[in-house]
Amino acid sequence: MAAAKVVIHGAGSVGCFVGGCWQAAGVPVSFLGRQSFAAEIAEHGLSLADFTGWQRRLDSVDYRTDPAVLAEADIIALTVKSGATEEAAEQIARHARDSALVISFQNGISNLDVLRRKLGQRLQVARGIVQFNVAYLGEGRFHKGVAGALYAEDRPDIRALAATVGDGRAALKLSEDMTGVAWGKLLINLNNAVNALSGKTLLGEFAERDYRLVVAASQREALALLKRAGISPAKIAAVSPGLLPTVIGSPNWLFKNVFLRSWKIDEKARSSMNDDLAAGRKTEIEYINGELVHLAEKLGVDAPINGAIVRLIHEAEAGRGPLRAQELRREVLGR
Ligand SMILES: NC(=O)C1=CN([C@@H]2O[C@H](COP(=O)(O)OP(=O)(O)OC[C@H]3O[C@@H](n4cnc5c(N)ncnc54)[C@H](OP(=O)(O)O)[C@@H]3O)[C@@H](O)[C@H]2O)C=CC1
Ligand SMILES: CC(C)(CO)C(=O)C(=O)O
């Protein structure tokens, strides 16, 4: 049987890396995205690399800017930022075949609700997540800076895709509990905002315990809310969700020797929210920490720590510069 045709919808950092790895593994892939990427990839090819020194270059890449390409897809891998989901869903509704499957590889939780509301009557929608970080280095070069895989729902069509993709740099792990996996990822993504507010690389931020204490406090608040809501986050990191705040908030020597040793992060890696702030783009804060603030509202309780972080990111979007570790700790934790 021929491999399913994939269209990467929103081919930026994650989409180009994942689609490039899948194409290299033998999956027929077309990319749908912006003219700036189309031009750079046409000129330089698509180059993939990771933190181990691995490299791969693809010369023949089908990168398009016309959403009509969606009509060719058996599987649409959605990799637009969360704020662009509605518009992407409208394009999918207009162009995709009824038999197409949409897999959202976006951070956050509520993108799936948007997709199901807009497309659920006609198309199948599945949840995926990306466990690693990808940076665009210019001239068609995409760099995976953190170890990890992709996760997606365990169903026959995704199982077949996972088999073709194999165990390369964008391997697909299958799960029957993608809601739990997405909440597990959200707990890890609570670091994105602190990393963005620090203005530093992930390693630069992690070196200062005051930053980590803010992340740990936001995770504790999140775990309490999830417990109240009856949601069980799945384990997708080296430690289980309940232990994350203890590990992240641990003293420097312990954190460096235990946690950082087991999680491969290269020196330049930053969170995607840090990249957004640096580029002057609107961040996904409302879909990460904001998701917890909305959950708290539904439960009739407060989420002061995540609420403060959401406010600080909006201030940063409006032009406020990076915060030093002690300053951030005082602003969020009040001590
Ligand atoms: N980068 C990372 O390391 C990680 C990112 N993620 C998640 O993956 C998702 C994608 O992130 P990332 O790859 O960084 O984002 P990028 O901004 O790099 O890529 C998305 C691309 O899609 C384009 N786009 C938006 N709407 C459309 C549309 N309707 N049709 C075609 N192209 C469109 C954007 O253009 P424009 O900018 O003009 O809107 C942009 O070029 C996010 O949810 C993010 O949180 C998860 C793990 C790691
Ligand atoms: C992989 C990770 C957690 C890196 O911060 C990420 O999801 C992101 O940058 O959005």
From TrEMBL:
UniProt KW NADP keyword: yes
Record keywords: NADP, Oxidoreductase, Pantothenate biosynthesis
Domain Ketopantoate reductase C-terminal: 178-316
Lineage: superkingdom: Bacteria
UniProt family annotation: Belongs to the ketopantoate reductase family.
Pathway listed: Cofactor biosynthesis; (R)-pantothenate biosynthesis; (R)-pantoate from 3-methyl-2-oxobutanoate: step 2/2
GO MF assignments: 2-dehydropantoate 2-reductase activity
UniProt keyword RNA-binding present: no
Protein name: 2-dehydropantoate 2-reductase
NCBIfam families found in the cross-reference section: apbA_panE (TIGR00745), PRK08229.1 (NF006083)
Catalyzed reactions per annotation: (R)-pantoate + NADP(+) = 2-dehydropantoate + NADPH + H(+)
SUPFAM superfamilies per UniProt: 6-phosphogluconate dehydrogenase C-terminal domain-like, NAD(P)-binding Rossmann-fold domains
Task performed by this protein: Catalyzes the NADPH-dependent reduction of ketopantoate into pantoic acid.
Matches recorded under InterPro entries: 6-PGluconate_DH-like_C_sf, 6PGD_dom2, ApbA, Ketopantoate_reductase, KPA_reductase, KPR_N, NAD(P)-bd_dom_sf
Domain Ketopantoate reductase N-terminal as annotated: residue spans: 6-151
EC nos: 1.1.1.169
Signal peptide: none
